[in-house]
Each structure stands twice: as C-alpha cells, then as structure tokens.
Amino acid sequence: MLHLDLDAFFAAVEQRDKPSLRGKPVVVGGTGWRGVVATASYEARAFGIGSAMPTMEARRRCPNAAFLAGRFSAYRRVSEQVMALAHELSPLVEPVSLDEAYVDLGPTHPGLDAAGVSALAEGFRARVRATTGLTVSVGAGPSKLVAKIASDLRKPDALVVVPADEQRDLLAPLPVRRIPGVGAVTGERLARFGIRTVADLAAADEAELVRMFGKAHGSGLRAYARGIDPRPVVPERDAKSVSAEETFAVDLTDRRELVERARRLVDRVAVRLATGGVSGRTVTIKLRRYDFTTLNRSRTLPQPTASPREIAQAATALLETLDVADGVRLLGVGVSGLTEYTQQDLLAELDEPAAPGEEPGAEPGGAESGGAEPGGAEPGGAEPGGILPQGSTAPYGPPAPARSGWSPGQDVTHDEHGPGWVQGSGVGRVTVRFEGPRTPVGRIRTFRDDDPALHPAGPPVW
Amino acid sequence: MKLQVERDVLAEAVAWAARALPSRPPVPVLAGVLLEADAQGTVTLSSFDYEVSARVEVPARVDEPGRALVSGRLLADISRSLPARPVELVTEGTKVTLSCGASRFNLLTMPVEEYPSLPAMPSGSGTLPGDTFTEAVAQVTIAASRDETLPILTGVRMEIEGNRLTLMATDRYRLAMRELEWQPDAPETSAIALVRARTLSEVARSMGATGSITMALGQGGADLIGFEAGGRHATSLLVDGEYPKVRALFPAESPIHAVVERAPLMEAVKRVALVAERNTPVRLRFEDGVLALEAGQGEDAQASESLDATLTGESISIAFNPQFLLDGLGALSTTYARLSFTQATRPAVLTGQREAEGDDDESYRYLLMPVRLAT
C-alpha cells in the first residue's frame, strides 16, 4: 500500500510557475478579508504559517510573503498528471484530494519485498519530478494507516517504507492524534485517561474505549492503534458516488466562506472523478447545522459531468437554497449516478479564472481595503459597445455572478509583453510580472486594470 | 366598438397575439388580448407578459372605433373553431359579443385602463430576408440550453457589426454559430444582444414566411429587441448577463478533416444509436476512405456500420452524444458534411460542403465537444 502526498502542493506549483517566488514564502488561500490559508510553502511555514490559519493572521506573521488566490485549473492539471502516473503502478488508485492518493500494489506486484517497493516508489517519484517538476513524498506500508503516517514522516521529498514487522515500533511512540478519527475532542478525552501515545491506546482496555466512544468508534480506534486497518483502496471506477466533506473548527455563518469551502470540496471531488475516468449526473450537498440537523439537497444535470465548474455551479445553487445564518458545522459535496463516459464541457475550455462566487482579489502585500467587501462592485461590467444593461433586473432568474477583477497569482498574457502573472491589483491598476516556469525571474510592469491588451490566460505549460 | 373581420384573418391574428400570453399571468389583465379598432379600418391585437410583447394589425370593416380587453386563450380557441364566415365583434356594456354565421358568443371584458402599455420598438434597426432569418435561427437555437438555472445559456447571442449579423448559442456541450448579412439603416451599426432562444424561434417561425423582417436593436443601454414583419410586431426583453467569450472556442486550425455524405451519415448514426442507451455515445473511427460507427459496449447491445469518407490528415477515433451529432448534421442543408478535428479530446467542427471536392461553407459552424470514454 502506498500513500502519495505532494509536498506543499499549491505553493509548490506557484513556485514552479513563478521563478521570482522560488525560495520565498508563498501562501495560497483566500486572499480576502476573511479567507484562510490553503497551503503555505516551506519557507512560509518557517514563520509558523499553516493550513486553515486565517489569512489575516498569516499576513501578520509574514507580511512579506506572496499571498496568492490560487489557480485551481493549474493544480488540477498537475494532479491529473500525477494520478495518471500512479495508475501506471496499479489500477487501484484512490485519490483523497488533489495532492494525495492511496495506491494498492497488491494486484500488479504481488509478493513485493521492501527493496522492491523502494525501487518502484523511487521510480514513481522520479517520474513525477520529471513530468511535473514537483516533489512527492511517498509512504509505503501494510495498510493505509501506516502508509499515510510513513509519507508524513520525513516530508518533503522523501520515501519511507515500513515493512509489516516494523509497523509496531513505528506507531508506538506517535501521539494518538495521528490515528484517523482522533481529532481535538477525542484526543482530549483520551488524554484525560492518560492515553497520549499510540502505544497507550493499543494497550487500553477495549471495553473502556467502547464505553467512552461507542462500539464502532471505540473498537475501531484500538484496532488502528494495533496497526489493524482493514480499509481497502477503492478506485473511483467501482464507487457508486464520489464525495468529500469537511467539518469546520468553528461553525461557519458567512455564505461566501461556505461557497469558497464548497468550491474546494468540489475540486477534491472533481479530481477523483477525473482519475476514475467517470462522471456523474446528480450533484448533492450535505449541510450539518450547529444543532446537528443534517440537510441533503441534490440536483440532476442534463448530462453527466466531471467538470468542477459545472459541479460547483450546481453545488453553490443548492447552497443558496439553504439557510446558513445559524452556523454550519459540516459541509459535503457529492456526485452520484456515475457513468464511464463524460460529455465534456466546452466552456471549461475557456478556463475562466473568475469563477462564480470568487471575490475580486485584494492586493498582496498592499493595504487591506478596510474590510469593504468588494463583492458587488464589479469592475468593467458589460462589454463596451454592448447593449446589455448593467444592473437592470434579470428577467429570467438570478443575475449573473459579478465578474471579478484580477486575482493575485492569476495567469495573464499581454499582447505586447507576453505571458505573466498578476502580482497585485487595486485602485484601477494591475501589476504583472512577466515570467514563466522556464524563464529567469521576470520584470514587473503596471497597467490600468482595464488595459485591453491584458487578457486572462490558462496555466503555463511546464 | 363594432367591427367585422374575415374569420381566417382574425384566427391568424389572435393566434399570433396569444403566443405571448403568460400561462400563469401575474395579474389577471395580462391573460387578455387587447383589441383596438380605429376609424381607418385597422384592428390591432396585442398581448404582453412584461417580457415579450406581440402586436398585429389586420384590416377590418370598423363601424365604431373602440377598445376591449378579452381573455386571449378563449378568443384564440373560439376563432380557431369558427365556420368560414365573416366575424362580427361588438361591445355591449361589459361584454363583447362575437357572432359568426349562426354562432354567438358573449365574452367578458377586463378593464382596458389597467392594461399596461406595450414597450415601444427600439430605434436603430435594419432588415433581412425572412427565410434566411428563420433558417439561421433554427440552426443556432438547437444548441441553446433549455436549463433555466443558467439563463445566459438559454439565449441566442446576436452580434452586429455593420452589415454582418452573427448568431450564436451554446448549451456548453455544443456551440452553433451562423453568420449572415443584413441591411442596417445606419451602416456603422454595432450592437450586441442576448435573446431567449425560445422567443427567437417563435418569432422566426411566425414571421419567416413574410418577405422581409425588420429587426430593431436599441443603442447603448437599451434592454429590448424588436421585430416587425407583415403587420406583426414583437418585442422581447434581453437576457441579462455576460455571455462567455465563445468565439475563442473554435480551433485556430484543424489538421484533420473528413468529408462524408450527410444524409447517409445521419441515417447511420440514427441506426447505431438505437443501442445507445440514454446519453451513451456513438464512436466514430475515421480511416482513409472509411468511417466506422459503433455504439454499445461490454455486455450491452452493440451496433456498427461503416460508410465512405474522405479523410485528410491522420486517422482519428472520437465519440459523440448521438443526438448532439444529429442536431448538427440536421442543421446543415448541403449534400456533404465536413468534420474537422484537432484531437480526439478536443472539440470538432461541423460545416456544410456542396461537393465532395471543394471548400466548406463557413457561414455556419457547429462546434461539438466529444464524449470522453474511461480508458
């Protein structure tokens, strides 16, 4: 069993595509007033910045870091390349997210020893590096649990192989929080009973654990602690539905924040659909309120889709119908009605960087705009010369989402200066650095933000 | 009001006006058709649902000018069923009496003063032949979305640049684009409009038989489009929102193209698609001289067929939703169809071609996104 985990994935892709950011702290996430960090580069982690930290806090800790809004189409492209390489190892690939997957080598490489696994995994790591320019950490072990722990052990750019007879020694000293299903609450309760390490948990009385956590959870925890993890690798092809969900540390009430979270969940679902080569017709959202009431809403599309854009559209429309004002604990997005063919989305080709619900980016490193949410105030608006009225009531339904401006990190191309990326924007100007993954550090230039020569572009080719 | 009108004239006029009647009127008067008779011998029938308006003028013998608002649905049903005799309409108090031969109807009227005034036709217009317009609208509306959750895609995008008129529609799986000429009143006319495909089809169908259609697009901030032909007028609000920049979707060049006889290809697609369950694709393999079609796989029913094709470039395998492919082929009127490709995963372009050897006609292009099969 292998666990693949791309190192500081979003940030690494940014550093790969933007030579000026290499070796510098980079933070990818919500750049707005209330956004949170999705990924921080290792340079940024040195300042104590980590995932899920509010972006404001990250800015305070490292004002000089590059704060980027994220380019999911670029991440998806890389993710698909990596998942395709994983499929060369075995058909049993279970992607967990854009940057993480389990691979079961059992069917293709039966009876492989530790040295064989090492050779195979190193070959894979080299191919990932050659194809994408990124480093991937790989953990190998007899179960998903051990493989995942192993991949994290010597990150970044590491391979750790744990043979079956060494897993006990590996697991024993680890804190219980490393066991899947042990979060903050469970961890604290265990600590009150003196259970702090995996070894403590493995030695705990099963009846006691069942009394504390219930039958399934209690005995499950103890089994994990003893290295017993029966979870198989489930490739998406065999699944009936694909879904992802997230429990929030603090109940969320801000609809925009929820939309952003939903889009990230959609991205996870979409990459799993893509790697499974499947698509689905029914999009479902699951929403658990502060009082644990759980609502499910679904919508069936005219054609099966694997397009993150289409799934996101359906998911955000479903989210619109639900009241979130009292607080949301958990949000999930799923796609079901899976088929093995996909009517591809023509409009996905346009690769619009400004998807619905995305807020116009604040300028990285620049002054915060005093919390004035710029959501409604769209720059540009209808095309010049058009006869589409701006701000007239839409006769056929909700108005089209406001087109956002330039977001930090966005790929652009300029008629005269060629390809580059948006370093910052605001007060009617946009600053672009003209460089690409294979160029030296590029120069920056500033334009009016409605410069007709400046266009959004797709991700650069590595 | 007192007037006499030919039965066919009335029936046609009412049918046209009733087109714009809302099925669930937000206010009762909108369920009505407004009849206005003037001393010059013209009867005007109008309907409006705040989005689409329809108005038609027909000649009549007007004895007493006047106005009346009656249920449009009822008037349409009645006038359709009348014998072929002159029809007399007379207002008597709060009723309209309709007599035709031995038939007599008393219709309730609604208060005329509560009826909203119809929007004026926008200024800035031009004309084009009715049949060309009807053909063009039919060619693009097939690609418009019927999914109301994304209103923009239920529209047809119209772009006017001088005497060039471009119509475009996409439901995100295919994109149809037709370019044609029209005669604008002002040579430097430049305008963009997004019109609901359903409205546009109805207008084109019912006005296309007349020789020439006048189309009016306001300048600047107008939010209306108007059509006029043979005494019939229609206006529609435009769909609001920014249309995706779909022109960029057409590939700059296509290294591969195949030319196939259109009618036999459509027949073959229909046949093999019989085994394709809902939404499953037909697979096309183009090799030198031959196009092989297949549908169904694995344990399901399967079908295959092959026909002659001229291929330029490398051989290619590609899969499409059969209905989408048929829609595109059906929108052409030429003997041959040209299918142009870049790769099996990239959109293909369908154009018409008169002769096996020759150039294709790029005035109509149908861009079709393939279906990706799991490998």
From TrEMBL, chain A:
SUBUNIT field: Monomer.
Job description of the protein: Poorly processive, error-prone DNA polymerase involved in untargeted mutagenesis. Copies undamaged DNA at stalled replication forks, which arise in vivo from mismatched or misaligned primer ends. These misaligned primers can be extended by PolIV. Exhibits no 3'-5' exonuclease (proofreading) activity. May be involved in translesional synthesis, in conjunction with the beta clamp from PolIII.
Native source organism of the sequence: Kineococcus xinjiangensis
NCBIfam families from the UniProt entry: PRK02406.1, PRK03348.1
SUPFAM superfamilies: DNA/RNA polymerases, Lesion bypass DNA polymerase (Y-family), little finger domain
Pfam families cross-referenced by the UniProt entry: IMS, IMS_C, IMS_HHH_1
Record HAMAP family: DNApol_IV (MF_01113)
UniProt similarity note: Belongs to the DNA polymerase type-Y family.
The EC number(s) this enzyme carries: 2.7.7.7
Residues where Mg(2+) binds: 5, 99
Protein name: DNA polymerase IV
Cofactor: Mg(2+)
Gene: dinB
Automatic annotation (TrEMBL), chain B:
A GO biological-process term: DNA strand elongation involved in DNA replication
GO CC aspect terms: cytoplasm; DNA polymerase III complex
Protein name: Beta sliding clamp
Known role: Confers DNA tethering and processivity to DNA polymerases and other proteins. Acts as a clamp, forming a ring around DNA (a reaction catalyzed by the clamp-loading complex) which diffuses in an ATP-independent manner freely and bidirectionally along dsDNA. Initially characterized for its ability to contact the catalytic subunit of DNA polymerase III (Pol III), a complex, multichain enzyme responsible for most of the replicative synthesis in bacteria; Pol III exhibits 3'-5' exonuclease proofreading activity.
Assembly and binders: Forms a ring-shaped head-to-tail homodimer around DNA.
Presence of the UniProt keyword Cytoplasm in the record: yes
Family in the record: Belongs to the beta sliding clamp family.
